[in-house]
Amino acid sequence: MRVAILSPWGAGGGYSGPLTFMDRLFGAVKSEDPSISFDIIARERPDEVAPSWASDVIFVGPRKSSGFSTGDQVRWGLGANRFLRRSRGRYQCLHLQGVYLPNQLSLLAAKGLPTTTVLPVLEDGDLVSSKALTGLMKRILVRNVIAKAAVGIAISDGIARELQAAGMAGEQVARFGNVVEFGRVVERAPRPDVNVLGFVGKLGPVKRPHLILEAIRNQIDSGANVRGLFVGPFATPEYRRYFEQLVARLGLEEAVELTGFVADPRDHIASMDLFILPSASEGLPGAMVEAMAAGVPCIVTDVGAMGDVVRTSGGGSVIEPSSDGIAACVDGYRANPDALTKASSSARAFAAQNFSAEQVAREYIQLIHAHQSELRTR
Q: Is the dihedral of CA 262, 263, 266, 267 positive or negative?
């Protein structure tokens, strides 16, 4: 089977959750079933490197563009559309890595192409829009592309509901976990202390890492020996200024470490005693799944699949999005080391059972083969 993956950003994206998911998933799929081949349909970037699991990276649309303006997105979508129409019969499966506008546009006029899998990124992030014109375009594309896809992949209940609202039948929506390569996980060493409060991801207003700063100040004022470890780049220069000014205002210069972009954060995660993600919007973030696999208890807000996963696993705590809520939760684990140890082991066990790359890969292989069988019998 040959699969075309529509991903304008290729397979590399630093702290991009969807691209990390793709890289881990398809790497495991290739290991499980070498007969499946993958072509990535992308826009050209100077730093694009084909991953080991891909047969080819095919560049379409705008070239040598440093940004991805609205015009670039339209040109990429139309270029991908032309390529796919010229390539009828070459692929047995199309995979949209994200359902943002240019990916949908690329399939709008490509009738008669094989089964399509779609992977939304965030709840309320791909299928809806508050802007009138963009919202109208999305509604048209959803009706003509998403509702006609053979299967949609959802990593949270909210995304599953969005796909069904877009016109997919319930049986067309497949629930997947995020992906962890357990052979590469660095496990947190067993210890009863709570000293390092960690965060991994893009530092910005959506993930709200500033709430962790205020909780650290609370902890230090209470006599606790804690520090914050923030792994990842800033989302915007404006948020960086706000965050650094808050560090200074709270007097946390000696208690906060900012790593910036780190290609491989596994060692950093293993050094954390608690992983904290007070986000306003998520699906099932890869950073949280990585922390669980490392045995780091997670303190999260109840958005996307985070709350359900943490409650079901017993691998952490679900809080309201406030610095007081974070501080109270940290106090609880410090006062009860047994609870910390239990949450650590529960998080790791749940991740091993539900998020291993091999398991998710087998589910994906079964999914696309099943839909191919349905198409052949029609």
A: negative
Q: Going edge to edge, which strands form the sheet with 274-277?
A: 256-260, 227-231, 196-200, 274-277, 298-301, 316-319
For Cα atoms 321, 327, 329, give the angle at the middle one, nearest 5 degrees. 85
pLDDT in tens, 190-234: 888 899 999 999 999 999 999 999 999 999 999 999 999 999 999
The residue behind tokens 């997670």 is 298
In degrees, rounded to 5, the angle at the alpha carbon of residue 184 between the alpha carbons of residues 183 and 187 is 95
**Local structure of 39: helix, strand or coil:** strand
* DSSP per residue, 41-85: EE---TT----TT-SEEEE-S--S-SS--HHHHHHHHHHHHHHHH
At residue 128, the 3 state secondary structure works out as coil
Q: Which of 231, 205, 211, 359 is nearest to 288 (CA)?
A: 231
pLDDT category at 133 given cuts 50, 70, 90 is low
Contact 36, 18 (CB under 8 A): no
CA distance 247 to 13: 28
pLDDT tens per residue, range 305-330: 899 999 999 999 999 999 999 999 99
Residues in contact with 254: Cβ distance below 8 Å, sequence separation at least 6, in sequence order: none
Give, as one character, the DSSP assignment of residue 148: G
Helix or strand holding residue 153 (H, E): strand 151-154
In the numeric block, the tokens 């091993």 are attached to: 352
Give me the pLDDT at residue 378, please.
45
